[in-house]
Write a structure and sequence with these properties.
- A hairpin with a 2-residue loop joins β2 and β3.
- 52% of the residues lie in helices and 15% in strands.
- It has a four-stranded mixed β-sheet. The chain has a four-stranded antiparallel β-sheet with strand order 2-3-7-6, with helices on one face. A two-stranded antiparallel ribbon has the order 9-10.
- It contains eleven helices and ten strands.
- It is an alpha+beta fold and 394 residues long.
Length: 394
Amino acid sequence: MARQSLSGIDLPDESAQIIRLARQFAEDRLRPTAEARDEEEAFDAEVHAELGELGFLGMRVPEQYGGLGLDLLTYLYVLEELAWGDGGVAVSVSVHNSLPVSILCNRGSDEQRERWLPQMASGALAAFSLSEAGAGTDAAALRAQATRVDGGWEIAGEKMWVTNGASADLIFLFARTDTPDDRKGSRGIGAFVLPKGTPGLAAGKKELKMGQRGSETVSLTLDATFLSDEHLIGEPDRGFGYALEALESGRLGIAAQAIGIASAAMDHAFDYAAERHQFGRAIKDFQGLEFKLGDMGARLEAARGILERAARAQMANDPRRRRLSSAAKLFASEAAMDITRQAVQVFGGYGYSREYPVERLFRDAKVTEIYEGTNEIHRVIAARQLYRERGGET
């Protein structure tokens, strides 16, 4: 089944070109090697270098710093295309563009932007490190400590679930800047940039995951890691707010990734249903299968629609943007789980075999319901934001 074209969507020529380039890269480079990355559970440095050369690591970097300066909607369509090829590769690109680039653009100083954004646009991969073993959904409970010393900060602690963590050239890390004797909750956290090779910084064990196994996820240990003041982004007590601000667009990246995974599964299911014959006819002609295939298409388009609405709210700084970003991530990830599950069902016994790609896509889809905020917490966010919008209690 041919990959559906976005040509019917009203996009500028430049946007259409970068989307076509992403589709071609996904078809020629990502999809043929996705199974190998899954089997080997290996970060593909060569693929990421190619992504940097093509400009995909600079999609959200302003042109003045050497990036493409894409609008949010075009960027999300590109992520969908890359995720159609390999969801694990797409999440690395999403984390880089949606979180570190966003924080540096919005909260970094002129000197910091001049120093790091050109590197990030040309291929220097970035990681985002907020979570810890006891601070996942409750990220403000993190314990890694940044202590004020002469000329900068000394950081100690352990971080968890860091995408790109061992291979990143830059790590955007959050640590407490208040003191153990005077904790200030979310107002006692700073945001720091750690270059690769900083003394005292070490990557821990690689997580053995259910899906997206070509995406690198590791723990980080910091042991008396010194950073000068120029590595602190913004105010020393406002880092947690910067992280939440970036995560609003990060959730949209995960929604786009989920849609790409779901779209790939649907394509495989439609192809197989047309090729597989039982009782003398293609199984796509049985009403039971038609219902499944029709539902897949409807859920996929609904997910795309809410993602576009959320993206436009972000671009317009609409006060509903936080709720809509949660709604888009929630809906798209659950649509991806449903579509990939139904794709496995269309394949029957073959769908349960690792010989066919829908099994991998089903595993890849699951984590989209978990990271960048679990779907349970996004239901809470959506409800509370609705109360605020309606002028009621929160």
